[in-house]
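The records we work with from here on pair a chain with its fold. These numbers are not coordinates but entries in a learned vocabulary of local backbone shapes. To see the layout at work, look at the sequence and tokens printed below.

. . .
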Amino acid sequence: MTKVALVKGEDRRRNIRTALELIASDLDLKGRRPIIKVNFVSTFIPLSSTHVDAACEVVEFLRDRGEKDIAIAEGATWGTTARGFRVYGYQEMARRHGVELIDLNDSESWKVVYVIHPDHRPHPVKIASLLVDPANYIISLTPPKTHLQVGVTLTAKNLIMGSLLIMDKYRMHPSEAANRLLDFNLFTVMQHLHLDLAVIDGFEGMEGNGPLYGERVDHRVAVAGTDFVAVDRVGTEIMGIEFEEIRYLNFLWDQGFGEGDLDRIQILGERIEDCRRQYRMSFRFLKMRRRERERGLVDRLA
């Protein structure tokens, strides 16, 4: 059974610490360097980004386990990463804990992979070598958010999109008419990455017009595990979202990247039903899914 910790409570940091302690026996860094991949999709909208207290608790948890050479990495999409580190309090936290801050948009080494665009031709994109290097222990730390094209942003999408050179992030997002390609592109890029520890800081979530302009959900939960597909599956459950609607996660499950079957996931801590909140999905996402179902019905009748 794959283990996933699920915790709820009135303190963000305590929630994360408890979740990590519940799955601590699964952690084996084997001398690899911990890289905490946070989420700064915008450096102007704090709700869209990983809270500094969440990152601080992960750092302190690692320190208590004897880890020393810890880094926090991100490549912001809207606004510079340096601005995010400054205004979200990461610079001060990094000074206190001796943590290196890495701007993935300034990476000197990249791996070129190929994604598909509506022209049905492969397009090259660059992913930061730091997140490909097997010598690094990759930790994805993100809030749960709805997403206007693929349904949700959780730990897998946080890592995938953040790994890309900033100008290549836009190549991942094809036109609305070809929105299925984004799910496939996320799956494609993830094949070149590895995610060793997945952590959802659900003290606050985002619903509606995410991942940028949605509204706050007072959720007060945390999820953690070493199987990122299982963690994201539990994430969709506590958001009240049908897992089958999240295609890129189903692609990853179908191809053996992790466990997506709830019957094969052991939940440590709270019960899913006691932590579930119904997140309002993006209108654009619901509209696209409705059009696809209507088109599929017409095709079957034809």
Observations:
- The chain is about 35% helix and 25% strand.
- The two ends are 44 Å apart (CA to CA).
- The chain has one domain: 2-301.
